[in-house]
Amino acid sequence: MDDYAKTPLQLPLIDISQPLNSSSLTTLSQACRDWGFFHIKNHGISKDLYTKICMFSKNILSLPLDTKLKLGPSSSLKTYTPHFIASPFFESLRVSGPDYYSSAKRSGDILFEAPNPEFYKTMQEYGKKMMELSKQIMIILLKCLGDGFDTKYYESEFGQCHGYLRINSYSPPGNIEYEAVEGLGMHTDMSCITILHQDEVGGLQVKAKDGKWIDIKYSEGELVVNIGDLLQAWSNGKFRSSQHRVVLRKPSNRLSLAFFWCFEDEKMIVAPDVVEKERIYRPFLCGDYIRFKVISEKGRFDKVKYTIDDFAVVDTA
Ligand SMILES: O=C(O)CCC(=O)C(=O)O
Ligand SMILES: [Fe+2]
């Protein structure tokens, strides 16, 4: 495995239940600029809810492959990504908003012999909480940009955002000797923000500007938030959508829940009120970027070679 730093990255931990003072806002802005990652605590999602989601997720992902393949990638539903698409050790189930109950039910109706309303209700509760949390986080991020951005822009620019959840399951090889394998290859997220719940196995890494990989540590009760491509563009590059990946070093399975909060497809993304410097991205339609990513990867998940810079950077040469 290539160069990586032995000590985990020190990132700000934001207490989301408290108003932030100006020094915390400065620290957070700096982290979003340098790394595009930070941690949050007191987010109001109970341990019980996570335990329940993990239990459902493990049950679903331990179903026979034939059953899971009815959900995708070749079926019309396309909610399941099997092993060997993103990596040999990764599979994933998607639940989309705004009606998380119905989205989970559409998959559940195919997977289960009997209805499983507890699963659908749990997904509905989690999706709703994640939407609220995304809003709360976005308002804080707008405050970081200063100049009354939170009151000026939240409703008009982010009021139509939507979210979807990916339940990611990692199963490292059990039969060979290895120091580390890549569970999910290097990519950036196509979101405005991503909220991630990882389990104690850990293994999430971010790529530093000098090319070194650094661990994002796991801490019980905390969530990881990262900036996605759409917000990097909207913030005129003030926030960074960093390349990241998952490395598996232990022979234990790993589960993560990644919630992606995104602009609506029809949204024209233009950085607002750019005073001190020129816009570095041309205005573009959100849906056009999503299509660009999907086509350039030839359907291979979002294992990204191309980023927002390849798509929309203004050529100043
Ligand atoms: O599983 C993780 O920790 C990260 C997942 C991720 O980066 C993604 O789903 O985009
Ligand atoms: Fe990601």
UniProtKB/TrEMBL annotation:
Keywords: Iron, Metal-binding, Oxidoreductase. Residues 161-264 form the Fe2OG dioxygenase domain. It holds the Pfam family 2OG-FeII_Oxy. Its cofactor is L-ascorbate. Transmembrane segments: none annotated. PROSITE patterns: FE2OG_OXY, PROKAR_LIPOPROTEIN. One of its GO terms (molecular function) is metal ion binding. InterPro entries: DIOX_N, IPNS-like_FE2OG_OXY, IPNS-like_sf, Iron_ascorbate_oxido_reductase, Oxoglu/Fe-dep_dioxygenase_dom. Gene3D superfamilies: B-lactam Antibiotic, Isopenicillin N Synthase, Chain (2.60.120.330). The keyword Iron applies. PANTHER family: 2-OXOGLUTARATE (2OG) AND FE(II)-DEPENDENT OXYGENASE SUPERFAMILY PROTEIN-RELATED (PTHR47990). Belongs to the iron/ascorbate-dependent oxidoreductase family. This is Fe2OG dioxygenase domain-containing protein. It comes from Dendrobium chrysotoxum (Orchid).
